[in-house]
């Protein structure tokens, strides 16, 4: 009998076909020493490599193909420069500063990105979203400094006369504040705030590049960024609406700008300036019609229509000769000086007030620049360096802040114009900077009579693309409800609360949605495809056969502390057996069986054999093994490891084996570190399998051997009783 029992022992596990390679890892100290030695090594080639890495223009400019590239670069640069001039002046309305500073910003940003950028097509400069965020900070600080936001910020005729004749005529005492030892008026203080925020944003971006923190942008999902941009566009539209009607109302400070501004607009609608309203209607009609024509016939048009420049020129002439400012009290841009102001240090005393405001500016500016750079690099088959892009955009903010400029970023509309007009390299940015330089040196004063409502029209019409995203909501909902909800939440929070909080809400909500999806992932039981070795979801595919007495469970998410309970509950529900309840039921049945056996033995005058009775009354389950398909589990943490260990132990208590299949190497390493396979991984061969089919075959062999042992034991019980 002993020989028979020995022949029914559990067969050995299926041999492992794959063997892990032994990785030789260098000690951390030696790796650190090697990197330090490499970093401090100084040689001519290394200096040349460092400089060319910091200034990529040194690599590609000597190889510039004049015959092939120059025409496209010159044309695209001139066209973008022509578009850039009116937009630079217009976006200063959003930023709350004088128009000249928008021209400065566009000029310096194009030159610096020409030297430091790695993208061949991105157009860096003034951007509506950045201008809006700067403007909110500027208006808040200007208001706190005691300046009146409701007054018309256009320069008066007295100021123009003073600039022209070099006199110092004054009418009333103007409120000033002391800044860096000088008395600073409203416009001086406004640009000082903008410069301080810009300097800090640039410092943050450079620090992010130094410490390799570019990964921060991965938390800005595409739906969240789209929703944020759309909500910000609606805020921009709201802020500019007062200029269309010629209303002189201050920008709301605090949360709910959109709601409060529209309430103020309708409360003051009776004060509408008819001259501004008519001008706005005409300009918007011309701009929208030109955009529609350009979109419809873009294949036939070799270059974009310079509609903004034509509208600005025509409106300036009409305002100047029609004397719209003096006759109809229409707000105009005011005097725009020529030339450059001397460089000046940013107001370091102001930075403590705006140190937090610069953070979202830095992140959004970098995110838009890198995403556009990578998008056009893929389109044209070259690569960009995200870390260098962060350095470039950082210095596009730091250096111009010494020259009265504010925050810049890559702009999608102008980048697309560059691409469509034959841009080949960043030489086009240099050409755009030269166009802006001509305006700064010679043509800036001609824009003095330009109405603010015309600038507002240019801004609002440029938002058409972002506002059209509302039409895509149904398609987003059909494609992915999760992405659609993230878009709606980010858009609503940005429009209804504030731009900064909208960004924060969007990031947090998108991460919560991701966590929620990992907490409630798809789970399934698998079946076999005919007589093959493939197993798939029984609910999703037809003609699958569930393995006999083996449950194959797939969990499609990482297993960590947040979804450990969800994993266990879904597994118990799928297989239909929870170990604790099953064990409780068995204990109750065993107790009843023991009591009944004891009574019967006492009545018959026999000795009770309780162990034999317990073994015979155990309930047989529909399955003997659970195979966990780990192919969709990228990683587990300590909580996930504890869940695996608990499962093996609990199911073993009711006679069910738990096997793992299709684990990746990272998962295996975690399990080995947690002693899941026992001491020295002695149980790895019987618990871990490279395929589901190998696990199923092993489970059936082990179960067959166990059943034979049980049958032999069952037949031996009467023999034992007879001997007694």
UniProtKB/TrEMBL annotation:
Coiled coil residues, start to end: none
Family designation: Belongs to the SLC26A/SulP transporter (TC 2.A.53) family.
Major subcellular location class: membrane
Keyword line: Cell membrane, Glycoprotein, Membrane, Phosphoprotein, Transmembrane, Transmembrane helix, Transport
Transmembrane segments: 69-91, 188-207, 354-372, 392-413, 425-443, 487-512
Source organism superkingdom: Eukaryota
Identification of the protein by name: Sulfate transporter
Location of this chain's protein in the cell: Apical cell membrane
Gene3D superfamilies: STAS domain
GO CC annotation terms, alphabetical: apical plasma membrane
A GO MF term: secondary active sulfate transmembrane transporter activity
């Amino acid at each position: 009998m002993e020989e028979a029992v020995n022949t029914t022992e559990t067969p050995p596990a299926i041999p492992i076909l794959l063997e892990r390679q032994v990785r030789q890892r260098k000690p951390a100290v030696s790796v650190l020493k090697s990197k330090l030695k490499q970093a401090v090594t100084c040689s001519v080639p290394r200096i040349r490599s460092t400089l060319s890495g910091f200034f990529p223009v040194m690599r590609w400019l000597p190889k510039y193909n004049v015959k092939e590239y120059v025409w496209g670069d010159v044309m695209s640069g001139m066209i973008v420069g022509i578009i850039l001039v009116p937009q630079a002046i217009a976006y200063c309305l959003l930023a709350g500063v004088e128009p000249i500073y928008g021209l400065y910003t566009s000029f310096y940003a194009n030159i610096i990105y020409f030297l430091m950028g790695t993208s061949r097509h991105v157009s860096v400069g003034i951007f509506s979203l950045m201008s809006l965020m700067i403007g909110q900070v500027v208006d808040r600080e200007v208001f706190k400094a005691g300046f009146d936001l409701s007054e018309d910020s256009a320069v008066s005729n007295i100021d123009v006369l003073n600039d022209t004749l070099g006199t110092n005529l004054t009418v009333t005492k103007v409120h000033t504040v002391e800044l860096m030892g000088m008395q600073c008026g409203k416009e001086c203080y406004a640009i000082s705030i903008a410069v301080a925020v810009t300097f800090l944003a640039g410092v943050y971006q450079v620090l992010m590049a130094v410490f390799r923190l570019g990964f921060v942008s991965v938390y800005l999902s595409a739906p969240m960024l789209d929703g944020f941009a759309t909500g910000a566009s609606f805020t921009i539209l709201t802020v500019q609406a007062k200029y269309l009607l010629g209303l002189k109302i201050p920008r709301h400070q605090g949360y709910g700008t959109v709601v409060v501004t529209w309430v103020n607009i309708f409360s003051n609608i009776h004060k509408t300036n008819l001259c501004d309203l008519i001008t706005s209607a005409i300009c918007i009609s011309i701009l929208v019609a030109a955009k529609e024509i350009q979109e419809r016939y873009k294949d036939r048009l070799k270059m974009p229509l310079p509609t903004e420049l034509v509208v600005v020129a025509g409106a300036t002439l009409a305002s100047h000769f029609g004397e719209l400012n003096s006759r109809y009290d229409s707000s105009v841009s005011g005097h725009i000086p020529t030339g450059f102001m001397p460089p000046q240090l940013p107001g370091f005393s102001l930075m403590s007030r705006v140190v937090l405001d610069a953070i979202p500016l830095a992140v959004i500016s970098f995110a838009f620049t890198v995403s556009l750079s990578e998008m056009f690099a893929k389109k044209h088959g070259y690569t960009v360096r995200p870390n260098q892009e962060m350095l470039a955009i950082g210095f596009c903010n730091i250096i111009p802040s010494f020259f009265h400029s504010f925050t810049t970023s890559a702009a999608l509309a102008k980048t697309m114009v560059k691409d469509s007009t034959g841009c080949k390299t960043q030489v086009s940015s240099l050409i755009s900077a030269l166009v802006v330089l001509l305006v700064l040196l010679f043509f800036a004063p001609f824009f003095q009579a330009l109405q603010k409502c015309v600038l507002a029209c240019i801004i609002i019409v440029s938002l058409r693309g972002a506002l059209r995203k509302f039409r895509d909501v149904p398609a987003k909902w059909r494609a992915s409800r999760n992405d659609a909800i993230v878009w709606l939440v980010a858009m609503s929070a940005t429009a209804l609360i504030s731009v900064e909080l909208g960004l924060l809400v969007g990031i947090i909500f998108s991460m919560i949605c991701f966590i929620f999806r990992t907490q409630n992932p798809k789970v399934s039981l698998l079946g076999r495809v005919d007589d093959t070795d493939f197993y798939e979801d029984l609910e999703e595919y037809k003609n699958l056969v569930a393995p006999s007495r083996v449950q194959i469970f797939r969990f499609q998410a990482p297993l960590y502390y947040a979804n450990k309970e969800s994993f266990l509950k879904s597994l118990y529900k799928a297989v239909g057996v929870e170990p604790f309840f099953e064990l409780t039921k068995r204990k109750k049945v065993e107790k009843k069986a023991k009591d009944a056996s004891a009574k019967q033995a006492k009545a018959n005058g026999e000795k009770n054999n309780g162990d034999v009775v317990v073994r015979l009354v155990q309930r047989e389950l529909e399955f003997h093994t659970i195979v966990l398909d780990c192919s969709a589990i990228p990683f587990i943490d300590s909580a996930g490891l504890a869940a695996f260990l608990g499962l093996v132990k609990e199911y073993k208590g009711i006679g069910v084996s738990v096997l793992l299949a299709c684990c990746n190497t990272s998962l295996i390493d975690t399990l080995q570190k947690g002693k899941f396979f026992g001491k020295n991984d002695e149980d790895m061969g019987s618990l871990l399998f490279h395929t589901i089919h190998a696990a199923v075959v092993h489970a059936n062999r082990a179960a067959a051997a166990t059943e034979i042992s049980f049958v032999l034991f069952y037949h031996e019980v009467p023999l034992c009783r007879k001997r007694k």
